[in-house]
Amino acid sequence: YPPHLIRNFAIIAHIDHGKSTLADRMLEITGTIPPSQAAVDRMDEDQKNEQVLDTLKVERERGITVRAQSASMFYDHPDGTKYLLNLLDTPGHADFSSELLRSLLPSQGALLLVDAAQGIQAQTLSVLDEARKRNLTVVGAVNKWDLVKDDGRGEAAVKELSALLDCEEDEILRVSAKTGLGVESVLEGVVARIPPPPPYVEAEKLRALAFDSYYDSFRGVVSLVAVVEGEIKKGDQVTSTTTGLSYPILDLGILSPREISIAENPVVASRTLRKGMVGWVVCAMKDVKDAHLGDTFHHTHAPMPPLESFEPLKSMVFAGCYPMEPGGFPKLEDAIKRLTLTDRSVTSNRESSSFLGQGFRLGFNGSLHMDVFRQRLEDEYAEEIIVTRPLVPVRIVYKNGTEKIIDNPDDFPDPGEMLKVAEILEPTIRATIVAPEEYTGAIINLCTAHRGVPLSHTYLSTPSSAHSAARITLVYSLPLSSIITNFHSTLKSLTSGFASFDYEEGPYERGDLCRMNILVNSVKVDALCSVLHRSAVQKEGRDWAKRLREVVPRQQYEVVIQAAVGSSIIARERVAPMKKDVTARIHGGGDISRKLKLLAKQKEGKKRLRERSIGNVTIPLKSLYTVLGGQ
Ligand code: GTP
Q1: pTM
Q2: From 364's CA, which of 114, 315, 459, 579 has a CA 20 to 30 Å away?
Q3: Could you tell me if the CB of 61 is within 6 A of ligand 1?
Q4: Which of 149-158, 439-448, 469-478 has the highest mean pLDDT?
Q5: Contact 111, 141 (CB under 8 A)
Q6: What DSSP element (H or E) covers 542?
Q7: 34 is in an annotated binding site
């Protein structure tokens, strides 16, 4: 397919501004997927949310797209030309910005969507930033036009977006992905305004960028590639610049949105994936570990240097993960293995806790990413799972110049080791918050309480009509650790849902961190220890001790729960011993049949398997699950 008839683009937007819906509509209009408008009208609300590009169950439940997926479509332009449009669908949350980068890489342009009723939001700014960094041509569109009709909010959004993109208001497309209004103009806009990939040069050597992959138990790894130079066809021998391993190309094609082998497609006459095209290849790669995002393939006989690639994914939030069921470890391991094949950004390593036994330490891009994975894991594993408190990677720099990064609170230096430590560094983020001006005070207070340092404070817009209040953009530097638990939800509730928030990675900075241990009758519960800023220790210590007191059942003896930093005790709670039930002795026994007794005994045995002992105290795992935030 000649490059001048190809357009590679991504749809970028704040979460829920309608990317997947627009992608579906474009696939429908081009006949790539069957038209469904009539069918949609007959569907109930639940079914309507089911979208072609959101394939995984959790994504539907949460309404977010987690995996970037691309789809190619053939578009019959009104002038009679047939274009090949390669759409790279991107997920919509800060935690997944690595996936966003992945889909922007092979594109020449991006369609920036803004919800007509909400206007520009924090993530609109950050995704635009990424697109600009990559010199992409950005086409602006205001979506959900059906919601605003003629009430002025739509035009206010157009104004805001044209100012942001520094273009004329009439260059902004007005669209309703829901009703189909203006979707044709999006297709035309993509063709007219986004540049085609560079032209194909005869005998050019192959360089193909692998930007995503998935696993198929029958064929092995299926890699999604963007052919940046040259061409690739069935039977070619290719080599990975990352691993040096060579593979024969067994099959290849485009995604539209299902895999279409090139051999079967009458439109792609050349039977090759040529420069500018995006597609899938199967090359007898059996081990998922050999599939590297950002890898460059070249022909084995014509070595080439790798293309500029994206940075490897970094895990920024870690948590321990343990089965609650006795003997559940192998099953949990299996479930984690299956899921990490579909979400390669999760890292997993075995670990063991003296309290919880064998488990895993999982690493995520962020806390939302962790929540989504946890829910998926519980679905996959079909049992409750204990997930320990999240921790960000903490850098410990020693006086002798060495340093280590810890991802488990239990590895935090104890007071003795602290004498050798020069400084402790923690990751920060650069947070962008967009909100109506009236919430400025509340947001500043929230950021200050989370150890934030203000960086900038600007007006996004001034009131232009009765329908748009002045809105501000606040930029703060915040420690990542302070926002991973409830920052986002507090921000939402403080601003009645009007504030939006996004962040990018900042530098590591000094943090006065310490380890808080939880002791039960003087024995440490490793699964409950945490790394905290010293200023938060008092409150957290009291909270944890109290919460634990509520779930630890009474025992024969008194149970003392303590929160401690080093040898100083922060909080102390007490669970009184059971009173001896004398009547039970008198009335119990005699009238229960042997069988009932046996059953009760068996039940007791099962219960015990779901308990753990710390010293002389028995704690049901379910209590720990509750304390750690499981439902
Ligand atoms: P993420 O993938 O989670 O970032 O979301 P998204 O940007 O892909 O948004 P999605 O397409 O899932 O749409 C979010 C919600 O907005 C859904 O409930 C859609 O039905 C709705 N929606 C999308 N486009 C329109 C539109 O043009 N009009 C109206 N009224 N609703 C729309």
Answers
A1: 0.75
A2: 114
A3: no
A4: 439-448
A5: yes
A6: helix 537-551
A7: no
